[in-house]
Amino acid sequence: FVEFKLYGVDLKLVENLSRHRTDGFISSKELVVRRGAAFKVGLELKGRPFNPNTDILKIKIMLGRLYTIMPVSYRPKHSDSLWTAFMDLSSFNPQQPCVYISPPASAPVGRYKLVICAFTKDGQSVCTLGKLTLLCNPWCKEDSVYIPFEDQREEYVLNDSGLLFTGTATNLVPRPWSFDQFESGVLEACLNLLEVSPQHQLNRRTDYLNRNDPVYLSRVVSAMINSEDDRGVVKGNWTGDFKDGLNPSLWTGSGDILRQWAQSGFSPVKYGQCWVFAAVMCTVMRVLGVPCRVVTNYNSAHDTNSNLVIEEYYTKTGQKLPGSKDSIWNFHVWVECWMSRPDLGSAMDGWQVLDPTPQERSGGVFCCGPAPVKAVRDRRIGLIYDVPFVYAEVNADVHTIIVSQGQVVRVNKDTEKVGALICTKAVGFPRVQNITGDYKVVRSMYTCGIPQSPEHHGGLQGGILVFLNLDKPAVSGEPIRFTIKIINKQNKVKRLKMHLNAQAKEYNHTPSDTFWESHGVLQMGPAEGKDLIQQQILPTQYEDVVGDDLINLAVVLEDMSSQEQALATEEFNIASPQLIIKIANENSVMVHREQMATVTFTNPFSHPVSGILVVAGAGLIQDKVTFRSVPKITGGKVQQAISFIPRMVGSKMLLANLMLTDVRSTVRGFKMVSVKSG
Ligand SMILES: *[C@@H]1O[C@H](CO)[C@@H](O)[C@H](O)[C@H]1NC(C)=O
Ligand SMILES: *[C@@H]1O[C@H](CO)[C@@H](O)[C@H](O)[C@H]1NC(C)=O
Ligand SMILES: *[C@@H]1O[C@H](CO)[C@@H](O)[C@H](O)[C@H]1NC(C)=O
Ligand SMILES: CC(=O)N[C@H]1CO[C@H](CO)[C@@H](O)[C@@H]1O
Fold first, then answer.
1. Could you give the CA distance from residue 50 to residue 56 in angstroms, rounded to a whole number?
2. Can you give the CATH number for the domain in which 128 is found?
3. Last residue of a domain, one of 135, 165, 187
4. Range(s) of the domain holding residue 68
5. Cβ pair 25, 158 in contact under 8 A
6. Same domain for 35 and 170?
7. 8 lines ligand 3 (CB under 6 A)
8. How many whole angstroms from 428 Cα to the centroid of ligand 2?
9. Which of 65, 369, 599, 664 has the fewest CB atoms found within 10 Å of its own CB?
């Protein structure tokens, strides 16, 4: 029987990939399958046919040095914990036999090797080798990442684009983002990430064994996304100076970042801030098959001393001071991953907070989570991991303090500000979903999407109340109009000094110098209410200072006879113009066929601007995004035509990012493109 030869494993790529919902990875030319579901492997025989009565097949599956050997049976076998393999004799082709291999739903994820050996009756054997990548399987009930709704599985595992929310709770700014999990080099970089991790370097065997558990996987990934403590992917920088790297606002997707990291031999990519860390983590988790979404928390507290109070300091003239080590970021972005928590009990199953932005060490390294969202809501701060930290991020109180000559002259307490709104992208639609109620029991006055300004006020004990309100959301190129309302609660005439102060402020910084101020004196009659004090800041006064930053506006009143103070503040962003993207023949976009689009920018600024345009889109524009310079424009329109060849069928996002060089703004836009199979 010397003529019996086994030639190569035909991994039946295309067919089984679509059944495993891994067909997006087709360009990786590897077999990518999910645990808990069988896949099919075909064998090429040369010489005599396979004889099921006398020949025996055995399969060895290897993950590093861990391995398991299974006999190939002739009847399907099911096991929750073991790999099994069988041959279907009813559709048996003796020249090209097929084997079905089933990984258990609890198998570790990673890159496996596979050896198939045939033994003949007289003791001869021949073997052949294959490779496969095994991922988690949210479609499989026995998998600990199982999520029971198809639209959610598609969004949280397969969607390769999305929106990240920035801005403020009353004026959300969606940033389009390309998660890129199916773009070239991304799958490989994600698997590399597991291998470069300190856990793997320290003890491969233990790491491989632990990789069956999404709690472990997500914690490893949360530490590896930032470059602190390890050879992680992204370096954070909050200095505002990014000259030896890329400004975090200019990334359009995760693909560039992960490829750059892998190609540089795993040196950190410069630079990221919270939404970049979170978006790259979301890509890695979706690639690994763990359902994941990016979440924004507005007015996110960073409570360094765990007293659940954040202090903010102002001068008597309304200037915000660099405060304590505690801080409030106007927004902070993290991710949630969906998994069961056998370590905590089924009540904690579901969404888990993971925060890859390096803020505080957890277990000695910069990582955070998984913290069950339910534990945060129910204040179960004894549960692992990092529940108290996340709890403070969404629940701390804010004390606004006026200081004068080292003395505290006034304290306002706000219990509603922190965690004003927590949101993510909705399933299947490019819009926001409010998930505040998952994190806390709220009586919030903020609304999602519809700008509605809450009234921030401060009053003298028994004396004067002051309110500060924007007349409407601030828009680029238009004056910022606001109204101050004062009520004299006492039955006597009061003379008041009024100080108004505006400062620009990055989303996570203490404000820069005052760029606009106004001072005056006014008189209030007994028990009088005034709400006609209208003020405005003109575009020429804020345009060049503010850009993508926020404005911190404050009013301080001082009773000239008693010296008592009252303060009201408002923080807001300026809605920037949008890029408009138009797709030619929008309803007949075909895969692999060249397609045209135009990006239009209308300049709302009071002077000419120019900038760099980047266009990207997972599944639409291969590899690198296109950079183009846009000519100077004065109040007018500029149009840029682009062409691309869609690579994948489905609903894909084309996105554009214009970094203006004359003002400190980045202008964005996106358009969903429905690509048909032709
Ligand atoms: C931030 O970037 C600046 C300029 O590129 C660089 O000089 C500085 O060292 C960076 N800071 C960190 C923490 O990497
Ligand atoms: C991804 O989200 C977009 C909306 O942002 C939607 O149009 C598309 O159908 C989603 N894709 C999948 C695979 O769920
Ligand atoms: C967001 O949800 C919270 C809690 O359910 C609610 O109080 C708040 O008004 C919502 N904001 C919206 C719908 O914009
Ligand atoms: C086990 C398994 O799912 N194999 C599938 C591979 O693809 C072929 C063709 O679609 C299916 O017939 C097999 O069932």
1. 9
2. 2.60.40.10
3. 135
4. 4-135
5. no
6. no
7. no
8. 4
9. 65
For the chain, what is the domain count? 4
Q: Ligand 3 within 6 A of 448 CB?
A: yes
Pair (224, 270) in one structural domain: yes
- Ligand 4 contacts CB of residue 84 (under 6 A): no
Query: How does 387-404 read in b/e, with b if 16+ C-beta sit within 10 Å?
Result: bbbbbbbbbbbbbbbbee
Amino acid letter, residue 345:
G
Ligand nearest to the CA of 673: 2
Which residue is closest in CA terms to ligand 3's atom 7? 444
pLDDT tens column, 587-596: 999 999 999 9
Q: What residue has token string 């069956």?
A: 212
Please enumerate in sequence order all residues whose Cβ is within 8 A of that of 65, keeping only pairs 6 or more positions apart, or say none: 204, 205
493 falls within a domain = yes
Q: Does the annotation mark 509 as catalytic?
A: no
Q: How many angstroms separate the alpha carbon of residue 436 from the centre of ligand 2? A: 22
Closest by CA to 326, choosing from 358, 297, 359, is 359
What local confidence, expressed as pLDDT, does residue 2 receive? 42
Extended beta strands in 234-326, E state: 234-236, 269-272, 292-302, 309-314, 320-321
Instruction: Tell me, rounded to whole angstroms, the distance of Cα 592 from its chain centroid.
Output: 29
615: left (phi over 0), alpha (psi -120 to 50) or beta: beta
Is 448 catalytic? The answer is: no
- The mean predicted confidence, pLDDT, of the chain is 89
Tell me the CA–centroid distance for residue 543 and ligand 1, in Å: 26
* Residues 529 and 643 placed together within one structural domain of the fold: no
| Cα(71)–Cα(86) distance, integer angstroms | 8
- Prediction pTM value: 0.92
Mean pLDDT by 10 residues, the chain (678 residues): 58 71 83 92 81 90 96 87 89 83 96 91 82 95 97 98 94 95 96 98 97 98 96 94 93 96 98 97 98 97 80 87 76 97 97 94 88 96 92 90 87 88 98 97 48 42 82 89 92 93 84 90 88 85 85 92 88 89 96 95 86 92 66 74 94 94 88 94
- Strand order of the β-sheet with 580-583 is 580-583, 595-602, 637-644
pLDDT of residue 71: 93
CA-based nearest residue to 56, from 110, 3, 122, 9: 122
Closest ligand (CA of 19): 4
Q: Which of 547, 575, 603 is the last residue of a domain?
A: 575
**Cα-based torsion angle of the residue sequence 337, 340, 344, 345 in order, rounded to the nearest 10 degrees:** 150
What pLDDT was estimated at residue 79?
86
Is residue 446 assigned to a domain? no
* C-alpha to C-alpha distance for 279 and 221, rounded to whole angstroms: 12
Ligand 3 neighbour 237 (Cβ under 6 A):
no
Q: Do 210 and 276 fall into the same domain? A: yes
pLDDT at 406: 86
- Does 240 contact ligand 1 (Cβ within 6 A)? no
Residue of 136, 274, 367, 448 with catalytic role:
274
Contact 486, 557 (CB under 8 A): yes
Residues 349 and 487 in one domain: no
249 DSSP β-pair partners: none
List, as one string, the DSSP characters of 378-424.
TT-TTSTTTHHHHHHHHH-EEEEEEEETTEEEEEEEESSSTT-EEEE
Per-residue exposure over 53-76, b if at least 16 CB sit within 10 Å of its own CB, e if not: eebebbbbbebbeeeeebebeeee
Closest to 411 (Cα-Cα) out of 311, 558, 304, 557: 311
Ligand 3 and 434: CB distance under 6 A: yes
User: Is ligand 2 within 6 A of the CB of residue 180?
Assistant: no
Q: What is the pLDDT of residue 457?
A: 47
* Rounded Cα gap, residues 610 and 658, in angstroms: 9
Shortest-distance ligand to the CA of residue 441: 3
